[in-house]
Design the sequence.
């Protein structure tokens, strides 16, 4: 008899954001007509920028014309997009070749799929609090997980330790959920550690475009030695508003080799088998992001989210609540007031002021007592949420 994958029994009952969606739906069903202010999942509220929309329209027209029509796309991505992404990195002084770029349908898909490249019995080091898909994908794959908790004392930026080692090391910087960003020196220590131990770093750069401080690295490949130990997974979801459109890319250097086997070649082998590539239309839209016009326009949208962050940070300052993030990241990570647990605070905000956030415990046990706000909502909702937060929390005791 075919048996189901036994590792699913080790997963939490439901995925964090699905669980929150169910809880908020139950609230709305019980309180018809209520308008929730959603600052939970990091889903963008601004439309795609003009340069992207124009490119998408043109690509649709291409598909209507026999001479310009495209069928299957190359599995690793259209040359025009791979070249545009490589050139984007080269402008920032990072040497990446187009054949080291793999176009994907988004970072979350890729973070799970990429586990195909590694020995199943291997181990994964996950710094927590962490984006919950890291843990879930590793549980589903039956890999051993080593949890590395971080805390406010180390700025949510743990250092490598000889006794805590794994084949795979997840690093998300700017971090989801804490907003903490590794400095070049800190990342160099992780790169050296990975090279010394033969580990591979999976670097999640989904939030790199929110970094304001120019001394902070936006790519692991700004760090010397990273090409022999790292894979970078990036997404246009947050930088260019592609959460619903779906497009991302993965950088796998040719120099990333273990036991004489090239991970770049393995991933090409994997993609040619498991995908038929991302649609021509989306890749044309994605290429527009990397034009000068596209870059200018996406930066304008990011500024709107950054203004939201300022609005929320001011509200938390007024209410006297400890937080971090928000500056180089679209997430604000705060300590729940009045000693509340993170799900308790979730219910409190939902019931009292109809504001939805994300409980810190959903990002790992060390996130208990913390809470995350996303700044991707509309400015109107964010201003309203800030007002309600101040009113609710300013009068609290303790
Ligand atoms: C989040 O809210 O953590 C992210 O939006 C989830 C995701 O990117 O899948």
Sequence:
């Amino acid at each position: 008899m075919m048996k189901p994958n036994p590792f699913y029994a080790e997963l939490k009952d439901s995925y964090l954001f699905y669980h929150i969606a169910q809880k908020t739906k139950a609230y709305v069903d019980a309180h018809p007509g209520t308008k929730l202010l959603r600052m939970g999942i990091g889903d963008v509220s601004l439309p795609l920028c003009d340069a992207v929309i124009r490119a998408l329209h043109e690509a649709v027209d291409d598909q209507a014309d026999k001479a310009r029509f495209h069928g299957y796309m190359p599995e690793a991505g259209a040359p025009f997009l791979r070249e545009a992404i490589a050139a984007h990195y080269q402008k920032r002084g990072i040497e990446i070749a187009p054949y080291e770029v793999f176009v994907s349908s988004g970072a979350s898909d890729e973070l799970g799929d990429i586990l195909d490249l590694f020995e199943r019995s291997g181990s994964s080091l996950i710094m927590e609090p962490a984006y919950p898909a890291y843990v879930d994908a590793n549980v589903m794959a039956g890999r051993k997980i080593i949890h590395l908790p971080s805390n406010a004392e180390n700025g949510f930026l743990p250092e490598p330790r000889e006794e805590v080692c794994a084949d795979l090391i997840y690093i998300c910087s700017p971090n989801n959920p804490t907003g903490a960003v590794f400095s070049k020196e800190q990342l160099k220590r992780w790169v050296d550690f990975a090279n010394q131990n033969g580990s591979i770093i999976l670097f999640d750069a989904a939030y790199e475009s929110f970094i304001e401080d120019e001394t902070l690295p936006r790519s692991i490949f700004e760090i010397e030695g990273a090409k022999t130990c790292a894979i970078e997974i990036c997404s246009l979801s947050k930088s260019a508003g592609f959460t619903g459109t779906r497009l991302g890319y993965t950088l796998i250097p040719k120099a990333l080799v273990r036991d004489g086997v090239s991970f770049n070649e393995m991933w090409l082998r994997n993609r040619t088998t498991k995908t038929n590539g991302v649609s021509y239309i989306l890749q044309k839209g994605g290429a527009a992001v990397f034009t000068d016009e596209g870059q200018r326009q996406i930066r304008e949208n990011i500024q709107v989210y950054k203004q939201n962050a300022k609005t929320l940070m001011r509200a938390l300052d007024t209410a006297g609540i400890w937080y971090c993030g928000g500056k180089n990241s679209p997430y604000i990570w705060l300590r729940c007031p009045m000693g509340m647990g993170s799900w308790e605070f979730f219910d409190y905000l939902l019931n009292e002021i109809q504001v939805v956030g994300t409980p810190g415990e959903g990002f790992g046990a060390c996130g208990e007592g913390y809470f995350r706000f996303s700044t991707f909502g509309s400015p109107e909702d964010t201003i309203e949420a800030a007002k309600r937060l101040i009113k609710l929390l300013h009068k609290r005791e303790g």
Summary: The first strand starts at residue 37 and ends at 38.
